[in-house]
């Protein structure tokens, strides 16, 4: 049940790593999943853009790309790449604190791995609801530390 955080081309240390790991496990368990091996790689816009082009043939900038490496049902094995620059930009655009936006993106990746999509309007609304619930549960965890 390893959850790891790495950096590529950027210096970023996620605050409250141990609490974040507990929280991510909690999200997965709530959805009926367990985490086998989950790697979050924090990177720059350019680094993530290159991955988007090379592996997904999308010539666009994005805040997150999730690679599902799972071979067993309801077990999460994944590499999730997050552009810290894009998350910072999105937090400004959305009028959110950066901490809340990074939590949104962290939960977004794991929710995708639990089967949630965000292509249609209905799917996107459900994804946002699940992200909001996840963020609320993170702050509940911090209250009970």
Task: Describe the model.
This protein is α/β, with parallel strands linked by helices and 145 residues long. It starts with a strand and ends with a helix. The protein is globular. It has five helices and four strands. Helix 4 (98-113) crosses helix 5 (121-143). Strand 3 and strand 4 form a beta hairpin.
Secondary-structure blueprint:
Elements: E1 2-8, H1 17-30, E2 34-43, H2 45-56, E3 64-68, E4 75-83, H3 84-94, H4 98-113, H5 121-143
Parallel strand pairs: 1-2, 2-4
Antiparallel strand pairs: 3-4
Helix pairs in contact: 1-5, 3-4, 4-5
Number of β-strand runs = 4
- Helix-strand sequence: EHEHEEHHH
Overall average residue pLDDT? 96
Helix content: 40-55%
Radius of gyration: 14 Å
Specify the structural class.
Answer: alpha/beta
Largest sheet strand order: 1-2-4-3
Pick out the low-confidence regions: none
Give the helix tally.
5
The biggest beta sheet reads:
4 strands, mixed
Shape: globular
First and last CA, distance: 21 Å
Strand content: 15-25%
Features of the shown structure:
single chain; 145 residues; 4-stranded mixed beta sheet; 5 helices; 4 strands
Brief overview:
This protein has 145 residues and is an alpha/beta fold. 52% of the residues lie in helices and 21% in strands.
